[in-house]
Write a sequence for this structure.
């Protein structure tokens, strides 16, 4: 009698849990299916990296070349240039973008005039909705030596005598990418921090005010620590994108003069891979990127955990 | 209530479409993919309706959206082809994937017009296996035509020539001297600073800067290398490190440091280039005409005194100029019929109908009496009203419908069988009379009828041009080509923008870096040229 009761009960426990969370599970199924179809199934395509793939033939009728494509990749001097540029621009964008977004979120949060607050927020996130094709032309025009606004302002302030050709200076390209990224994405990035700030218990602020904390102290001791988990999770997630520092932005702002500093992985894959029908080579580059990204995400996760933060995994 | 209305509307729609298909049932349908963007076919156009009635075929078109490379790749990967396909420079890829049918027998049996009109080009269309898999989109059956503009040139602002009293300009130095003088005299135009010289360097369009040495040496557009006749054989030579190239970049360097070459010429993109040219304050630029045509149209409309005038400029007086294109067809791409096509006979018959002279005349000139007239000598002409109608691009595309049967489909150009031109724009007696007043002023001053007459007649070369030979995708030569272009892209701005004292040093490094990156390509080109000389 006893045994016959315990078994079904154990079974029922899991079943009950599933039943209770039925709605949640149902809701997540489409996403799991989506991930499997679009993120896991295509991994079969990685086989291409070990072949000399030619379109029109099946995956298994191709010639196999082993690690030849990887050998070509690591032998290529351009590859190391690309790696340097990608990492440099990613890190610049990540650091500048994060700092600017948090600063903007803090500032907007402190503004009491509702109308101004809403307007400032709208203006700051509007550029996010322009495509880079348009935005790049705006940036080009602003930086132009032929009546561009930046040069005009600097010249009328007597900071410079001659217009500077910003887009023609190789060393400056990374920073132009960083700054234009901040201009375009700062408002959008601030939204998530604003949401986190909105969730902070007002009682904390009241207590701080009673203890005599001013605006700055409140920011430092209450707002920032409260959004620390959000910041660290976003940072960990962004680590995964370090190896892909974007494409359109660099592609549209680059020119021959700065190409040595502008070429990132996506452009490399395009110029030296897909445009030449070297699909296998492009795949090998993709695999290298994925593997490094995976390592970066795990490393960041471990570091965050060690610092006493919540990790993702 | 709302639902019922919706239901009725849907029902009506179903009935209408159903009856529509039933009505159209006697029409045969063919699908075609054209590798260029074109809006949806309007459903009915003057040209299209006649073609549909005479062939009994309804075309279902897919125009290019986005990237051609991706679209063709997808087609090949899925094996899902339309009946007919035009894939521009990816045509041979479709053939390699086994997607194209050999056309020889089809043409032999069902297409007398195609056979007759492509006869001149037949040898160059045969692939290694002796079969023909595609038809180039233009054939020249009776002889070439002339156009108002050369395909490439050093352009100069009309104001400069007028101000200097219409001088004859031949050499690169004279050309820049004229520009320098004008800049000194008029440092600003319409309140903005005068731009002496502009050179385009945007992405793949940078050939507008790097191809120039060959033209200064008097060659037409061959591409990255020039075949030079040596003891009866065309030998492929490179010009990127030639003396002419050095003189060219050194001159640009000198002019850059004098402020004649625009400061931001190497960082501007194509849009900015067109914008500057259209402003009328640019005095000189080199380019292929199609790249500046848009700006020229703006200038003709808004600032006729600043139109771009093409000049035959060479490096020095010892060089003979032959920059005009030798008329050629593009044998490496065209329209093919795919293996998915269920009725290849219908497809080839359709193309055969399109190519014949009468259809071509309909597409280009229109209906006699309505869109053009014939004078007593049998020459076609248009009244000013008819000309105005054909100058309206919207009308030509949407009402007349030319684009839908011309750009991607096999067509004829040059002289037709009775001495008229297939393209109305090139009708000899109309080239001058159809010119804009601003253009007439210049050609009158130089005593010619058209700008192309300022140039020497081209010399016939059987293989022409070299650039239609392509590097096998992904081959060593192909990779080398990309690396060479990288070197060019990296060095050319430095050559021009450095201090004059640094030029020699940078030039030496440039020669060192680019020289090893040409061997494989030259091998491929040499083989291609030899093959063409033997087989065409």
């Amino acid at each position: 009698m006893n045994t016959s009761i315990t078994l079904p009960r154990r079974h029922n426990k899991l079943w009950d849990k599933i039943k209770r969370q039925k709605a949640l599970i149902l809701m997540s199924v489409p996403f799991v299916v989506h991930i499997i179809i679009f993120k896991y199934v295509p991994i079969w395509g990685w086989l291409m990296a070990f072949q000399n793939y030619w379109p029109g033939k099946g995956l298994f009728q191709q010639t196999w070349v082993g690690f030849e494509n990887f050998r070509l990749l690591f032998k290529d001097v351009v590859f190391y240039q690309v790696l340097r540029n990608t990492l440099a621009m990613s890190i610049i964008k990540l650091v500048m973008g994060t700092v600017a977004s948090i600063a903007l979120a803090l500032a907007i949060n402190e503004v009491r005039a509702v109308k101004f607050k809403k307007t400032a927020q709208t203006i700051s996130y509007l550029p996010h909705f322009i495509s880079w094709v348009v935005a790049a032309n705006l940036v080009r025009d602003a930086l132009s030596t032929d009546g561009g606004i930046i040069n005009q302002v600097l010249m009328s302030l007597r900071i410079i005598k001659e217009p500077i050709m910003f887009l023609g200076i190789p060393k400056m390209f990374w920073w132009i990418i960083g700054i234009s990224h901040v201009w375009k994405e700062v408002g959008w990035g601030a939204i998530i921090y604003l949401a986190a700030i909105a969730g902070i218990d007002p009682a904390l602020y009241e207590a701080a005010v009673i203890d005599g904390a001013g605006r700055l102290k409140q920011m430092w001791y209450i707002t920032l620590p409260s959004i620390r988990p959000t910041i660290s999770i976003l940072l960990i997630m962004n680590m995964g994108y370090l190896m892909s520092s974007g494409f359109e932005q660099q592609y549209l702002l680059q020119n021959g003069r700065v190409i040595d500093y502008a070429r990132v992985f996506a452009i490399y894959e395009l110029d030296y891979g897909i445009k030449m029908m070297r699909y296998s080579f492009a795949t090998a580059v993709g695999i290298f990127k994925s593997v490094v990204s995976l390592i970066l995400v795990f490393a960041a996760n471990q570091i965050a955990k060690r610092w006493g933060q919540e990790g993702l995994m | 209530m709302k639902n019922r209305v919706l239901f009725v509307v849907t029902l009506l729609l179903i009935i209408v479409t159903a009856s529509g298909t039933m009505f159209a049932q006697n029409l045969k349908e063919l699908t075609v993919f054209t590798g260029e963007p074109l809006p949806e076919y309007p459903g009915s156009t003057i040209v299209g309706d006649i073609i549909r009635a005479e062939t009994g075929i309804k075309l279902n078109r897919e125009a290019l959206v986005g990237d051609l490379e991706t679209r063709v790749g997808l087609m090949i990967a899925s094996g899902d082809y339309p009946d007919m396909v035009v894939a521009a420079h990816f045509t041979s890829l479709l053939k390699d994937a086994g997607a194209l049918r050999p056309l020889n027998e089809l043409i032999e049996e069902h297409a007398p017009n195609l056979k007759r009109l492509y006869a001149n080009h037949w040898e160059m269309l045969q692939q290694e296996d002796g079969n023909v898999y595609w038809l180039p989109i233009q054939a020249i059956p009776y002889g070439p035509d002339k156009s108002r503009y050369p395909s490439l040139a050093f352009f100069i602002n009309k104001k400069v020539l007028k101000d200097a009293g219409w001088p004859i300009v031949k050499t690169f130095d004279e050309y820049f001297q004229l520009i320098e003088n004008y800049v000194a005299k008029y440092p600003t135009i319409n309140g903005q600073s005068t731009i002496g010289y502009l050179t385009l360097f945007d992405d793949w369009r940078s050939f507008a800067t790097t191809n120039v040495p060959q033209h200064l040496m008097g060659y037409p557009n061959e591409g990255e290398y020039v075949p030079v006749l040596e003891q009866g054989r065309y030998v492929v030579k490179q010009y990127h490190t030639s003396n002419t190239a050095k003189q060219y970049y050194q001159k640009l360097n000198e002019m850059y440091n004098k402020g004649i070459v625009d400061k931001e010429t190497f960082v501007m993109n194509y849009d900015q280039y067109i914008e500057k040219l259209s402003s009328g304050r640019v005095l000189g630029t080199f380019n292929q005409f199609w790249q500046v045509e848009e700006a020229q149209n703006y200038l003709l409309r808004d600032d006729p005194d600043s139109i771009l005038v093409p000049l035959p400029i060479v490096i020095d007086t010892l060089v003979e100029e032959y920059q005009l294109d030798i008329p050629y067809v593009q044998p490496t791409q065209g329209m093919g019929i795919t293996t998915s096509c269920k009725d290849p006979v219908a497809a080839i018959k359709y193309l055969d109908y399109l190519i014949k002279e009468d259809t071509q005349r309909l597409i280009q000139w229109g209906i006699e009496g309505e869109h053009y007239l014939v004078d007593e000598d049998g020459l076609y002409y248009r009244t000013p009203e008819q000309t105005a109608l054909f100058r309206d691009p919207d009308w030509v595309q949407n009402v007349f419908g030319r684009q839908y049967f011309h750009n991607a489909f096999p067509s004829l150009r040059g002289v037709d069988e009775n001495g008229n031109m297939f393209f109305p724009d090139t009708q000899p007696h109309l080239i001058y009379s159809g010119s804009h007043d601003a253009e007439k002023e210049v050609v009158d001053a130089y005593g010619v009828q058209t700008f192309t007459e300022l140039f020497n007649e081209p010399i016939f070369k059987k293989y022409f041009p070299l650039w239609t030979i392509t590097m096998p995708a992904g081959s060593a030569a192909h990779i080398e080509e990309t690396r060479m272009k990288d070197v060019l892209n990296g060095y050319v701005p430095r050559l021009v923008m450095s201090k004059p004292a640094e030029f020699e040093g940078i030039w030496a490094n440039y020669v060192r870096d680019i020289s090893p990156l040409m061997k494989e390509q030259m091998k491929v080109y040499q083989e291609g040229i030899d093959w063409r000389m033997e087989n065409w």
About this structure: Residues 228 and 235 of chain B are 5 Å apart (CA to CA). Chain B has two domains: 24-142+330-428, 152-323+453-535. Residues 19-24 of chain B have pLDDT under 50 and may be disordered.
